[in-house]
Amino acid sequence: MIDRRFTEAEKALSAIRERKFTDEEYKTGYINALDGLLLSVRSGDERDFYNRTNLNKKNLKEHKEEFKEFRKTPIRTQFDSGYFAAWSDIMQYKINVDKD
Fold this sequence. Notes:
Layout: H1 6-18, H2 24-43, H3 49-52, H4 57-72, H5 78-97
Helix pairs in contact: 1-2, 2-5, 4-5
């Protein structure tokens, strides 16, 4: 999805939907984040976080850590934890793929 290969992204997202998670609310948050990212990348809307953010290696690492910290806040729900886990995973994926 990040490289605008939407068919592959939809297949990967479908596989994630089929995967077993220990908590359904967490799974819903995780998938919601990925669905939103797919929609954002497809639309190219510059108001969306992913489309307006400079995703260089330094920023990717900072955002990944921020999302990890958001998950640790005690008032978060399982949905929130899943949502921010997905974003953290996306940032890590970009770090791994974008070898500077």
